[in-house]
């Protein structure tokens, strides 16, 4: 089970789904399942839905997040959105470096680093994504890829600047495929990530930073994943579009918690 020093965090990534009315309806269903004292919850919605979802979850423990941002504060960048604009629209969270952004839109470790600086400057909570492809895993390159991406994302940041940052380990081979890393595989990657943070930045930051797992997280596997000591939450894709399933993920139960209740 995750360390009591690290409050669990469950983020839903709605990707390019839902109209405004559908977004509001889903947000209202989810907010009912968010309880004070439970994990932190974020709904990372399409840019068009930020304001209406922010209003729908107002006064609840759920926060609203963006799925990407530009690193510049303003300028002639047609189609882009700045950190300040996200915050002004009602966001408290933003995803940076998702594998789909890397794969389809040319995201690099360098742009992740610049976006992270912009997000922190606007007091947003950044969820920085890292993870290997199937080819990289089969070639035994998982650790190398993770270390390179972490170094690139956090380059030139002091430990204190990263106190709000969250990492999300999302093995690319498990995203949208129905394949999920086993709890042991996820724990192994999270342990390595924490060691990288301790070695490259600081042990204090490593002990306190929340590391989420993302990759076909479902209502029927969240309990076993969250029972692992270095998994501090989840970045949820398709299941976050199903209110009942996402609420069940938010209300995950670990064996340790069940034993205490018994």
Protein model, in words:
With 262 residues, the chain is α/β, with parallel strands linked by helices. The protein is built from twelve helices and eight strands. An eight-stranded parallel β-barrel has the order 1-2-3-4-5-6-7-8, surrounded by seven helices. Helix 1 runs parallel beside helix 11, helix 5 (109-121) crosses helix 7 and helix 7 (142-154) crosses helix 8. It is globular and about 45 Å long. The chain starts with 8 loop residues before the first strand and ends with a helix. The model is unreliable at 256-262 (pLDDT under 50).
What's this entry about, in short?
The chain has 262 residues and is α/β, with parallel strands linked by helices. 42% of the residues lie in helices and 14% in strands.
Q: If you compute it from the alpha carbons, what radius of gyration comes out, rounded to the nearest whole angstrom?
A: 17 Å
What is the count of DSSP helices, taking H or I runs of 4+ residues? 12
Strand content: 5-15%
Average of pLDDT: 93
Order of SSEs = EHEHEHEHHEHHEHHEHEHH
Helix content range of the residues, please?
A: 40-55%
Q: Label the CATH architecture.
A: Alpha-Beta Barrel
**Largest sheet, order of strands side by side?**
1-2-3-4-5-6-7-8
What structural category characterises the helix and strand content?
Answer: alpha/beta
Number of domains: 1
Terminus-to-terminus distance: 17 Å
Give the total of beta strands: 8
* CATH 4th-level superfamily: Aldolase class I
């Amino acid at each position: 089970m995750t360390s009591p020093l690290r409050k669990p965090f469950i983020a839903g990534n709605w990707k390019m789904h839902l109209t405004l009315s559908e977004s509001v309806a889903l947000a209202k269903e989810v907010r009912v399942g968010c309880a004070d004292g439970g994990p932190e919850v974020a709904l990372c919605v399409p840019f068009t839905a930020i304001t209406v979802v922010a209003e729908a979850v107002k006064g609840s423990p759920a926060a609203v997040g963006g799925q990407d941002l530009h690193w510049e504060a303003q300028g002639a960048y047609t189609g882009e959105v700045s950190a300040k604009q996200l915050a002004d629209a009602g966001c408290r969270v933003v995803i940076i470096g998702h594998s789909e952004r890397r794969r389809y839109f040319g995201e690099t470790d360098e742009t992740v680093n610049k976006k992270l600086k912009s997000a922190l400057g606007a007091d947003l909570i950044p969820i920085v994504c890292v993870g290997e492809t199937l080819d990289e895993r089969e070639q035994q390159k998982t650790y190398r890829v993770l270390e390179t991406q972490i170094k690139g994302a956090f380059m030139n940041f002091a430990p204190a600047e990263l106190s709000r940052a969250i990492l999300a380990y999302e093995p690319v081979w498990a995203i949208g495929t129905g394949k999920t890393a086993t709890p042991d595989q996820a724990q192994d990657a999270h342990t390595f990530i924490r060691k990288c943070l301790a070695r490259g930045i600081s042990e204090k930051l490593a002990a306190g930073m929340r590391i989420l797992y993302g990759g076909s997280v479902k209502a029927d596997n969240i309990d076993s994943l969250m029972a692992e000591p270095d998994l501090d939450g989840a970045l949820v894709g398709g299941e976050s579009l199903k209110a009942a399933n996402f609420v069940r993920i938010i209300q995950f139960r670990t064996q340790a918690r069940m034993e205490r209740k018994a």
